[in-house]
Specification:
The complex is a heterodimer of chains A (660) and B (161). Chain A has 660 residues and is of the alpha+beta class. Helices cover 64% and strands 12% of the residues of chain A. In chain A, the strands form 2 sheets. A 5-stranded antiparallel sheet of chain A has the order 3-4-5-6-7, with no helix packed on it. In chain A, strands 2-10-9-8 form a 4-stranded antiparallel sheet. The longest helix of chain A has 34 residues, at 202-235. The longest helix of chain B has 31 residues, at 8-38. Chain B folds into 2 domains: 1-38; 41-150, Nucleic acid-binding proteins (OB fold (Dihydrolipoamide Acetyltransferase, E2P)), CATH 2.40.50. The radius of gyration of chain B is 24 Å and the shape is elongated. The N and C termini of chain B lie far apart (80 Å). Chain B has a 5-stranded mixed β-barrel with strand order 2-4-5-7-6. Chain B has 161 residues and is an alpha+beta fold. Chain B contains 2 helices and 7 strands. The chains are: A alpha+beta (660), B alpha+beta (161). At the A-B interface, helix 12, strand 1, helix 13, strand 2 and strand 7 of A face helix 1, strand 1 and helix 2 of B.
Chain lengths: 660, 161
Amino acid sequence: MIVELGAFALILALVLAVLQTGMAAAGRLRRSPVLAGAAEGAALACAGVVALAFAALILAFAVSDFSVANVAANSHTDKPMLYKVAAAWGSHEGSLVLWCLVLTGFGAVLARARGLPFGLKASAVATQGLLGVLFLAFAVFTSNPFERLDPAPFQGGSLNPLLQDPALAFHPPFLYAGYVGFSVCFSLAVAALIEGRANSSFWPAWGRWVRPWALASWAFLTVGITLGSFWAYYELGWGGWWFWDPVENASFLPWLAGAALLHSAVVTERRGALAGWTTFLALLTFTFSMLGAFLVRSGVLTSVHAFAVDPERGLMLLAILGATSGVAFALFAWRAPQLKGGGMFAPVSREGALVLNNVFLTAASATVLLGTLYPLILEAANGATISVGPPYFALTFNPLMIAALLILPAGPLLSWKRGDLKGVGQRLALAAGLSILIALAGWMVFEPKKALSAAGIGLGGWLILGTLAEVAERLRLFRAPLAETLRRARALPLGAWGTTLAHAGLGVFVLGAVVETGYRVEAARALAPGQTIEAGKWAVTLDSVGVVEGPNYLAEQGKLTVTLRDGSAPRTVTAERRFFPTGGQTTTEVGLDFRGLDDVYVVLGERGRTAADEPAWNVRVWWNPWARLIFLGPAIMALGGLLSLLDRRLRLGVNRKAAA
Amino acid sequence: MNWLPKSPKARRRLWVVAAVAPVLAVAVGLSLYAMRDSVTFFFSPSEATAETAPAGRVVRLGGLVEAGSVVRGTDGEVAFAITDNAATTRIVYQGDLPDLFREGQGVVTQGTFLPDRRFRATQVLAKHDENYMPREVADRLKAKGEWRPGGETPAAGAADL
């Protein structure tokens, strides 16, 4: 019954989305506030109904209703409750409902937003409604999650055990909140192209409306990608955290474009400049989101992560992508030349720095896009099957990002319109000097000596120190009495703290990524109980291996002791090899020993025999120095995004407009 | 500075172009350069001849793990053979096989050919899903008429717990 309600709710949502689009468009054309208001009501109802459908789906998973095909394929009664619920968005159909929920939910918030001018809002609500129609129709007609099975099986096929993990349970909701959150930026950009005028007050206001959406989506996406990367790090047991896999790139592209959008929206908001470019980025970011959905679900690219691959559905997604982005970019090509506006600025200025940031970020995303799609292009061209690996990205993406990061600390110090490069240089001199010292220290401390990695450490330090130098400058730290500094700290808007945190978080991430990549030590050996393997300064001893029984798996559990080479500072870790009888799959449970910022990462492999014919296990050990920072950095960045979002100026700006 | 355009708008545009052009040029140059060396070609055992995949060049080799070919040495060394039912290549690999590695299953290995035409794999990829067949492997098998969907019987190796 609940399941039928859910199926009905999904169809009702499609009808409501059609109504929303139609009424908003008609309301806009006839300038009828009644119709437009009704469209906003429809948007709210649509979101509510999709939420109902999603709740019904979760309930079906929670009670293990195997008469539903999707539940039978992806759930099992033995699974812990968290993974029963998470399985609701673990399959193609369920995750599409989640996608629609975020799309309509954000659409409802957009419909409730106050202060947008009538025409702009009606157009945006209509566009958002149209996106809802397309994706809901896709869900209802090709991927109905509520399809029944007759007869119902007694037991389900279970969720892929690798996905039964807390980080991955929460990875899709965050990822989708980010991916699909950009749809509002897309709708607002389309609305601005329809309604936009070349007058100077329109674009700053538009920038202020777009920026919170871009900020929120970007912060969500940051959390989502980090959770996914963390999962890959400790669940796959490959010792790495980023593989430049097509599916990873698919989530990284909207992140890069979204970061560019965030920065160019600031220019549009403050100065009314770059209006056309900001609109373009808003269209591009959601296009990348849809491209990601297409790449992940169609199976056109070989990936280690892809799930539920179906070429036919992929084709449908490609059609949706082509239709929406095609129309939007055509609209852009037609209207953008008429949308000139905004203030002038000198090349050396805050605006100039932000333009440079955008140039680097978009160039970097272009290289990632090329690397991701090149196998497809080549296969279509001459049939050769290739894969583009990490060396490509190391050669293209890294230099561009390094250049961008080098100039990053100077940006916030430059003033708007016309900046003073010499003054900025003086204010950053101390930070620059210290960063060089940090690089030298890194070169001396870490073994083996690597000049490039040491320079990378200096770059991370430069980002953190340069960002702090900017705050110190604004607070007049150590140059004014402490009371004055504190007063200034309180007066500093949250947005400025957000910027500082996000940029410093990036520095923290760079430190972690550089040190982990440069100085990671890996060792592997077959160990009989009692034997020891050494990795860098650590020694890992296999104490015992036993068999344990989990809720839905059997595991070989190894107890290992991690010590320093001289035997001091012992700590026990457990590493498992789990066998899931349903589906007959084996997974690896990594043993992680946190040593300050470092990880000692232990993987228990297959059982074999030593030369003396004793039982032995292949044990792989990684010493990943500073790996903690890789995941801490993005968390700080997301926090920075959240702080900026809470800035009163962003909210009051909207409200003040409403009062006017 | 009289070669600069007079209008401030045109002047700004010139600056933007001056900033964008070198970055784009660098990006394009790097991409082209990187594509030459870091692109990895994929072969099936019967396609990987000494001409197409010379010893020492990193390539991917994919096919089915030949039944009964897996030999585990001491110290984590594994030898197995992969086949596309037309030709067979012997693989040596040091390390942990993926959790889903099984005889009869499709895998993709990455590595280099040794002078004796054995293949030293540095990476063995199987997917998260037990029904997975790498797309390239599936395509080649289909092209050769060797495609038997669902026909691969999982070997007993996984059930040793």
